[in-house]
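hey
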């Protein structure tokens, strides 16, 4: 069992998942907890660089299994590399990660089949998240935050399909760890909900902050 806690922030582009992860990080750090921000996609690996290049081409690869497989490979890399998510969890950190294999399932556009089989295998070798916050937002709101179309996923029709995929995952909740957080409201009110749920999970796991230890 992990000594720390793994918390994932999921959602469509423009949902506000980065904002809420950063807010929670600042709060927990000020409260004296050992907190680390992690990324499922970085630029310091061959696979990460490949994904960036593929996204920047703006080519139509939404259903391209190749991108999904490379992304899953990148996730495993960022979990297992020295100082990666597994090391941080073993050291008792509260790890806040932007996206996980849930994103691959939502963005790949597959319903069952080969990608699901690969995701199942990836789940076997990566830490199971304690909480997955799905930051829910209206697609039009997300597009306004993005400031227009960017890569080939940042289009209204595509984001709606991706949002629908997330909703199916939330309904199934196979790992019993997904929570939908409506982010159409006031920022600090939404943050308060996330902070309260997270704090309760930290206490339930028996993690102490440095202020308490002193």
């Amino acid at each position: 069992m992990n000594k720390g806690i793994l918390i994932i922030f999921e959602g469509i582009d423009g949902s506000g998942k980065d904002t809420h992860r950063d807010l929670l990080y600042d709060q927990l750090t000020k409260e004296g907890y050992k907190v680390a921000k992690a990324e499922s996609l970085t630029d310091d690996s061959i696979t990460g660089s490949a994904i960036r290049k593929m996204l920047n081409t703006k080519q139509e690869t939404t259903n391209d299994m190749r991108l999904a497989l490379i992304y899953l490979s990148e996730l495993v890399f960022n979990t297992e590399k020295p100082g990666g998510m597994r090391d941080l969890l073993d050291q008792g950190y509260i790890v806040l990660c932007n996206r996980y294999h849930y994103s691959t399932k939502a963005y790949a556009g597959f319903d069952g089949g080969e990608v699901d089989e690969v995701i199942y295998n990836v789940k076997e070798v990566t830490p199971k998240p304690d909480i997955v916050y799905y930051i829910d937002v209206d697609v039009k709101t997300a597009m306004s935050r993005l400031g227009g179309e960017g890569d080939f996923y940042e289009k209204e029709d595509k984001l709606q399909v991706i949002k629908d995929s997330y909703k199916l995952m939330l309904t199934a909740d196979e790992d019993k760890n997904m929570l939908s957080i409506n982010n159409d409201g006031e920022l600090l009110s939404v943050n308060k909900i996330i902070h309260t749920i997270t704090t309760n999970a930290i206490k339930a796991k028996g993690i102490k902050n440095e202020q308490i230890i002193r």
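DSSP finds ten helices and five strands in the chain. The CA atoms of residues 13 and 205 lie 31 Å apart.
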